[in-house]
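Folding follows sequence. Below is one example:
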Amino acid sequence: MIKTFVISFTKCQPYCSPDWSIDGQLEYDLLCRSQKDSIISVTGEKCTQHFEQALELCESREVRERLLTMISRLVYHILDEYRLYICDLYSDNELNNDMEQRPWINYKQKRSLLIKIFIKLKEFSKGKQLAEEFEDYQSLIEICDELKDIEQLRTYIEQYGDKFMVVFDEYLRSKSALSVLFQKEYFDLKSVQRYLKSKPEFAWMVDIKNRDYEHASLSTLQLVTETIGKRQTLLAISKFALLASSHNEIRNAEAIKLRLRFIENEENLCQQRLDLLSNLDEGERLKQPLISAKDMIKNLILKKNTSQSLLQRYCSALKILSQMETNPDFDQLRLFIFAQAILVDPLKPIGNSADPLSCNAKTLLSQLFDYIKHENLDKYNIIPSREKLQSSNELISFQNNHDFQEALSAIYSSLLTR
């Protein structure tokens, strides 16, 4: 077994001359100091493959343990030599540019690669010894997380300070470690709470832990998100936190009511976004970019990325507009919708017709008025005044058109009886 391992390792490490004794002692001497960084960079991954292959061939626990001990010593000697090389390299130099930082970055990467052999093999004690010796904080964090050893993690945070927390910050951000944030024991660490509080996307977690529901609701509502699904999730958190806040802070009842209405409007807008993506399955729709309500309306009116009919597109735009009463672009957008409706389906002259309304009953503008009535939308808020609509930039060419003015007046007059 040992011979098999030595042969395997020698094949992947042409610059090394390992000398094994019968009890597994290893004397490791790396030749050509100037080539150390490139040697280990090239062979690190191959070594890990040979380590694993050798362990798979073990016929008993005793042999496996001996081999693990030998591998541990080997990794120690590799990293010790590599560390000395890096220290010598930077003893008289500063890390001023990317080229000078590359050896240090390579060292950290290969250090973790070799130590993580033991994490992968569930040999945490050996991995821990090496990680502590060579201050591989990433590996120490992973071992603590695997073992759910919160006390050891607390000790490392106190021992290594800010340097450790920088790596812990990166670990918490990594996709594989997101579950860490939802483990209760981690919230008990003041350093973790400080980290979470310093990050806008995580600060609400600490607020909820501290029962500051009002601030948690506000902070999640203000977060910028990239996808529809993330926006929906944050809105749900904001809503639940707000309801919890209303239970504890009755004095803010009116402010809570207004914010709740805003959140529900935003939730409706998210649903509108999803409805406009009916050609995709639900999972894909949630991953789509979160475009603004303004862009949604313009895309509908200008027939971008939609298969809806003309009337459906304009009705969808009005439904979105109804959720935007507090939006600063509200007035501009409602003028845009109704002006475009007139441009795409112009009003017909009423002349001396006995029934002026029937002349334009089938036009898009009249159908939109009917839709507003049917959906019980606030017509006085959704529909712009006739004077504003007539003077809009889009309809400037109609300002001196008597037939148009007469037809538009007839339709607006009917609003009083609808």
Notes: Residues 2-197 form one domain. The longest strand covers residues 19-20. Residues 61-90 form the longest helix (30 residues).
